[in-house]
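> call design_seq(struct)
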């Protein structure tokens, strides 16, 4: 059982291999804020051809070696999309970060998403019909994030055509105008233009598409584009990038208890069990 300390902690258990692991540990981003210089330093570190996360033994040693003199600024519990994102954000701001995950990275809900990176087309419909500027701001934000994620990880994310079948001419006009407005709102963040396909074109593109819906006949389809991602690989990529820029990340490490100060009100550390070995250290 290793006791890992946060900043402001008292005495702590130090691993005997901490000094050896430090030699192989990447140099953290020097700036302690989110200035352009700090972010550029992180980008250069990640883009190096030899950039790779330190081995598990080094990760564990650095975490277990945190002391009152050199504590962690932050310990993130949970290696899903949110936890790894928080760790990466904090590490690129110059904080000394640790992250632990009881199972494997993205083993929970972060690998069971829709895999879509949508720009908020439903929010746009609400914004128009409810005259809600707040919903429109959500669309702008979602479109910006969609474009950013695809540009950051083009090997894991791509544009996805979404086909909307229309069984009367009102639906054709409704979806065509609505999705064209979606294109206009996207502006320079547009992935591809939406367009109408005739019945023949639609069936050629999607042979299993139903031509009839009850007593209604297919009048065509409207295709628009949103993003798609490999959610679990993207999550693992966040964890690896966090480690490259200086965070210490460890999977199969379970938090079994929290360490508090003498008043019992402030958390100053955590006790972690290595679930692979099951050994108490």
């Amino acid at each position: 059982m290793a006791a890992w300390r946060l900043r402001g902690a008292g005495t702590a258990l130090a691993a005997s291999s901490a000094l050896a692991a430090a030699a192989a540990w990447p140099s953290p981003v020097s700036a302690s804020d989110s200035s352009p210089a700090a972010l550029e330093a992180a980008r250069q570190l990640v883009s190096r051809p030899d950039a790779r996360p330190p081995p598990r033994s080094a990760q564990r040693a650095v975490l277990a070696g945190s002391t009152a003199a050199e504590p962690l600024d932050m310990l993130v519990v949970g290696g899903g999309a949110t936890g790894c994102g928080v760790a990466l954000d904090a590490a690129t701001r110059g904080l000394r970060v640790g992250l632990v995950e009881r199972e494997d990275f993205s083993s929970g809900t972060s690998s069971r998403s829709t895999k879509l990176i949508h720009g908020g087309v439903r929010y746009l419909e609400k914004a128009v019909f409810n005259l809600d500027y707040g919903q429109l701001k959500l669309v702008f934000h979602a479109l910006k994030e969609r474009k950013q994620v695809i540009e950051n990880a083009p090997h894991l994310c791509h544009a996805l055509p979404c086909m909307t079948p229309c069984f009367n001419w009102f639906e054709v006009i409704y979806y065509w105008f609505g999705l064209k407005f979606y294109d206009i709102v996207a502006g320079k963040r547009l992935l591809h233009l939406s367009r109408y396909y005739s019945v023949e074109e639609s069936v050629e593109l999607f042979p299993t598409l139903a031509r009839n819906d009850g007593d209604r006949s297919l009048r065509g389809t409207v295709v628009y584009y949103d993003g798609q991602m490999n959610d679990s690989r993207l999550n693992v990529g966040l964890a690896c990038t966090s480690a490259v820029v200086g965070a210490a990340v460890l999977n199969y490490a379970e938090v079994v208890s929290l360490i508090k100060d003498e008043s019992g009100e402030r958390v100053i550390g955590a006790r972690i069990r290595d679930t692979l070995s099951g050994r108490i250290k």
